[in-house]
Amino acid sequence: MHPTDPVLFTGKLWSKYIISYLLCNIYIINGRERLQLKEH
Fold first, then answer.
1. Given this model, what pLDDT does residue 2 score?
2. At 3, phi and psi to the nearest 5?
3. pLDDT in the model for residue 3
4. Between 20 and 30 A from 34 (CA), which of 1, 7, 18, 25?
5. What pTM was computed for the model?
6. Source organism's superkingdom (predicted)?
7. pLDDT tens column, 1-40
8. CA–CA separation, 34 vs 20, rounded Å?
9. How far apart are CA 33 and CA 11, in angstroms?
């Protein structure tokens, strides 16, 4: 075990979390825009 292994591991977890968070935001924003288009 190298000392940098935990850092790389947490870095990968954070990148996955950030990507999924951004994708969720994009999905929600698109959904809201579609709802607004249906209302008008």
1. 63
2. -65, -20
3. 63
4. 18
5. 0.58
6. Eukaryota
7. 566 788 888 889 999 999 999 999 999 999 998 888 887 6
8. 21
9. 33
